[in-house]
Design a protein that fits this description.
The chain has 92 residues and is mostly helical. It folds into 2 domains: 1-43; 44-91. The protein has 3 helices and no strands. Helix 2 (20-38) runs antiparallel to helix 3 (47-91). Pfam families: HIG_1_N.
């Protein structure tokens, strides 16, 4: 039971540090699920082409989420943190 709680708290801690990781994971699974459901009505498209399009869309979403996560962390590190430090110096 404690191992489960440790894993759950670890996931929640990581999600709070990098909020775009769960967004990327959710988007990945949503795109894959949608494309798998859409596979029934793919028409003349070959299976391999359909799977490649699904993979590219899912990877594109994950890369976009990772990029936004990096931009967000850089914003926190280089914009928000210096402002807080400057306010702390001004208050002293």
């Amino acid at each position: 039971m404690s191992a489960y709680e440790e894993n759950e708290s670890k996931f929640m801690r990581k999600a709070k540090e990098n909020p775009f990781v769960p967004v990327g994971m959710a988007g990945f699974f949503a795109i894959v699920g949608y494309r798998l459901m859409k596979m029934k009505s793919r028409g003349d498209t070959k299976m391999s082409v359909h799977l490649i399009h699904m993979r590219v869309a899912a990877q594109g979403f994950v890369v976009g989420a990772m990029t936004l996560g990096v931009i967000y962390s850089m914003y926190k590190e280089y914009v928000v943190k210096p402002r807080e430090q400057q306010k702390a110096v001004e208050n002293k």
